[in-house]
Amino acid sequence: MKFNMLENAMDSLNEAIDYYKNGIDNNDERCFKFCILLLSHSAELILKEILYTQHGILIYEDIDRVKNENDKTVGFKLALHRIKNICKVDLGRYNNYLLELFDVRNNIQHYKFSISSEMCTNIITSSFSAIEYIIYNILHRTFNDFEDIITEEQIEFLHDDKKMYNKKKKDIAQDILDHNMVKIGVEYIKNKFIYIPCPHCSEETLVNEGDIIECKFCGRKFNSIEDMYNEDFNCVISTHMCREIGRRKDVLRNIYECENCNNDTLIYSEVLGEWICLSCGNHISSITCDDCGDEVPNCEYNYTFAQSYTDTEDYMYLCNSCGKKLKDSEYGYCEYEIR
Ligand SMILES: [Zn+2]
Ligand SMILES: [Zn+2]
Ligand SMILES: [Zn+2]
Q1: If you measure from the C-alpha of residue 258 to the centroid of ligand 1, how many angstroms do you get, rounded to a whole number?
Q2: Of the candidates 102, 106, 110, which has an alpha carbon nearest to the alpha carbon of residue 78?
Q3: pLDDT digits (tens, 9 = 90+) for 242-269
Q4: How far is the CA of 300 from the centre of ligand 2 (A)?
Q5: Ligand 1 centre and the CA of 135: distance in Å?
Q6: Which residues of the chain have pLDDT under 50?
Q7: Which ligand has its closest atom nearest to the C-alpha of 222?
């Protein structure tokens, strides 16, 4: 028997998404019911897939008496139990989401269905969140790997649905905290960060996972910070950074144009003691302005260099505003060569 559990799981997920969408579009509670049944079927197969990746035998209910491949396989609860106790995979809160899904599924199957439509949506959103978490983080796949089963439109629908989006965002933020993951960002003042958004989904959910960078929201992986910037075809990062810098103008004070990418996103990090471009990751060391003492990027493109015509020992590296002040003053250009 060939195990296509994950493909089958995606088939059910595909139908679950459509039922959820129809339920919303037509305000039809029955659709939510079918959605829950299909989600439960999908989740069960996904759990079996986790077991199967650890050892093929784990998907059978009675491990010691497996005679052939058609023997009874594990149910939902036993699968969850084995994942935790044998595979040592901690599903955290998603374990509870799935248990709840399982209970509601049973109620529906035994016609004890009497939960509110709001409760239904809660279970549906948390189940989708759990399934996506497992696909990305435990099985290390993405929905895009199943593009002939789950369409781009369906993925978009899931991610655009407000309730779904909020639930997932909250879960991921909590995951990052719970697992002490470090988000990719720049600490510009002690304990103050600007986080770099994912070039694909624009969420601030990029974290270091060993040697690579991973987006916890869309599952994209990058081999390095450089790769991440190179994949930013739509300027998601620079647009985001211009906005973030705008919000912190008073704190960041001096902002320069980056020679590398021409965005006005070169900021000084007090913590790093150097300049960093938030759009392209360019690092530049720092010097101080010989007039006002402010930090200036140590780069010809950014500082103003003023050299006296009469005294070679008399030269200055100036910040933007001091450079401008000198140019506009009576000394500028007649006493200094300003570059
Ligand atoms: Zn992403
Ligand atoms: Zn740059
Ligand atoms: Zn200055």
Answers
A1: 25
A2: 102
A3: 999 999 988 887 899 999 999 999 999 9
A4: 15
A5: 14
A6: 1-2
A7: 1
- Where helices occur in the chain by DSSP H, the ranges are 5-25, 29-54, 76-85, 93-109, 117-133, 152-160, 162-178, 225-230, 236-247, 249-252, 320-328
pLDDT digit string (tens) for 1-30? 445 889 999 999 999 999 999 999 998 888
Ligand lying nearest the CA atom of residue 241: 2
* Half-sphere exposure in the Cβ direction for 185 (13 Å, CA): 19
Distance (Å) from CA 247 to ligand 1 centroid: 23
Please name which ligand lies nearest the alpha carbon of 219. Answer: 1
**Whether the Cβ atoms of residue 323 and residue 333 lie closer than 8 Å to each other:** no
Ligand 1 centre from 57 Cα, in Å?
35
* Region at 267 (left for phi over 0; alpha for psi -120 to 50; beta for the rest): beta
Backbone torsions φ then ψ of 58, nearest 5 degrees: -65, -15
Question: How many angstroms does the Cα of residue 249 sit away from the middle of ligand 1?
Answer: 27
Residue 286 alpha carbon to ligand 3 centre in Å: 13
pLDDT, position 173: 94
Asked if 60 and 34 count as a contact pair (C-beta separation under 8 A), the reply is: no
How high is the pLDDT of residue 206? 96
Q: Which residues contact 88 (CB under 8 A, 6 or more apart)?
A: none
- Structure confidence at residue 21 (pLDDT): 94
- What pLDDT is attached to residue 1? 43
